[in-house]
Each structure stands twice: as structure tokens, then as C-alpha cells.
Structure prediction request, 341 residues.
Amino acid sequence: MSDGTHTPRVFSGIQPSGGLTLGNYLGAIKRFVDMQDSGIETIYCMVDLHAITVWQDPDKLRHATRELCAGFIASGLDPEKSILFNQSQVAEHTQLAWIFNCVARMGWMKRMTQFKDKAGKNAENASLGLFGYPALMAADILVYHATHVPVGEDQKQHLELTRDIAIKFNNDFGVDFFPVTEPVIEGAATRVMSLRDGSKKMSKSDPSDMSRINLTDDADTIARKIRKAKTDPDPLPDSLEGLKDRPEARNLVNIYAALADTTPEAVIADHAGQQFGTFKPSLADLAVAKMAPITGEMERLMKDKGEIDRVLKDGADRARAIAAPILQKTYQIVGMVGAKR
Ligand code: ATP
Ligand code: MG
Prediction:
């Protein structure tokens, strides 16, 4: 619990901006499942409104949203235990985001590194939505009074902004209404790096398919991508310090540890002195053993789109039941005539 007054509740989201990657699985979805199974109330969202901050083909967006839902379920999220839905179907997210647009300061938003990374050199041509994204993300979380948010390391800054927005809102209006949310950034692979460039994170929107492992890749593709992953010519060292300036090697060790549910230290202890010619095939076997059942289940679930749409609708109804009174109370605090008690 963040401040002692809010019941623990978990929220997190993933964008249907492409297919799920191993980074999304290890950094986020695996944690989502752990939290669901720990008995806390869990709400997981396909954040389609975030996805359109960069161009998305409408048919591909529909497909990616359903596939993301299938990926959640195939990874162990149970639509009865967790609330699974797509963001656009609960209008309270965007309604609260407007309030937060008026709470967040330009100076705060301008510091966000994700905007700088994604807008690149042509920031003038980026959408206003891409710039405002973190205020919508704060609304996604706070419209449920969520106290804990499992994410990968790259989302840390956005969660700090979410905390700043909650604190400023509470101070401005003299209330203790929004919780100060705790990021949950855990596991051996909180930042899985690109297989082609150890300085860049693995992303579903990276133009290079070889940079990532997709949850839909078959065994041969996974093995080929790992075999071709960029590394250096040295064998694995006998301690973690030996990986300090070897980001690509460190990445493969972290991935191995996260897939095997162990620590990078333990992986190094088991594989010290190995050449990548030996380590990479072991990693590929492990990745295939862990991912193939999920890939197979996703494929099966995608055959019944009606059932996926039913899960999403049911989730949206349950999510709205929590979000609507919190939005109305926010409107009341802010001074909107007509806000329901
Ligand atoms: P995009 O490239 O469109 O931003 P993405 O792969 O970064 O896609 P998001 O939907 O932005 O995926 O993020 C979903 C979740 O996955 C977040 O919690 C994020 O921190 C986590 N995540 C994304 N990439 C990685 C990664 N490489 N390693 C660990 N976690 C990651
Ligand atoms: Mg991202």
C-alpha cells in the first residue's frame, strides 16, 4: 500500500502497437501473472489509445489488440480473476486524462525521455498525443486508484510523473484522493535489449524483426534469431563484474535467468567459460521450451475472435464500474456542476 489509505490494486497496460516481444513477456506479463496469482485485484489493459500516438493501420490495430488479449490469456492471465479490456472502451481514461493535462506542467512533460526517443529528430512532426501520452498513462492508473504498477524499467520515468500528478492534484485541492503509486520493476530482465544492438531496448515497434523475439515466432525462428544475436568473441566470464562492459552478453545472460526463473549470478556460475557457440543453443532451447506452449495457446485462442471480444467487453464493463465513480468524485473535487455523488 502506498500511503496507508488505499486498498492495494494493480493496474498495467500494453500497447497493441505490434506483436508481443520477449521483452514485454519477461518485463511485464510474467509479473502481471505473479500479481494476479498473489490474490491482489488486478486490472490489465490493451492501451489502444496509446498505440495511435504513432500511425497504426486500423485493421492491424484490431488484430494486434485481439492478439494481445490472446497473449495475456495464453501467458496465464485468467479473465475471471483479472480484468482484461481495451482502453478505448472505458471513456473515463480520456476524461481523467484531460484533468491531468491541466495538472501536469509543460516542464515535466518536456523531460520525458520516451518522447525524445520516439519523436527522434523530427519532434515538430510528432503527434500532440505522443507528447501528452504520460498524462493519459497517469489517468489509466489513477482512474482505478491503483497502488501498484508492474512495468519494465523503461516506464520508470512515466511512473514518477504519475506520482507527481497525484501529489500535485491532492495538494492543489487539499484532498488525499489519489494514491501515490508504487512502480513494481522486478525480475532478471526488467530491460531486455535488442538482439542487434545492446544499447537499445527490445521493442515491438522496432523496424528490424531480427532485433526481437516475438511471442508468435516458431522454434526455428527463435533459434535463428538467438544464433544471430550480436555478441563479442569472448567466453562467458566467471562473475557478473566480467559482464560490465559487455551489454550484449549481459543481455543474453539476463534473458536466460528470467526464462529459467533464476538469477544472472546463478546463470554465470553454471555457464562460466562457455563460448557463445555453446551458450546460445542452450538459451534457444530454453526459450523455445518456455515460449512454445504460449505461442500454441495464442494461436488456438485467435481462432475464436468472438470469444476474445466477449472477454474484452466483459472486462470493460467491470473496469467502468470501478472507474466511473472515481471520475465523478474527481469532477466534484475540481468543481464541475452536475458531477454525480
Ligand atoms: P513500443 O515499441 O510500441 O513502445 P514496447 O515493446 O515498448 O512497444 P509497450 O507497450 O510500450 O511495449 O510496453 C508494455 C510493457 O512492456 C511496459 O511495462 C514496458 O516497460 C515493458 N517493456 C517493453 N519493452 C521491454 C523490454 N525490452 N524489456 C522489459 N520490459 C519491456
Ligand atoms: Mg514502449
Observations:
- The radius of gyration is 21 Å.
- The chain has a mean pLDDT of 96.
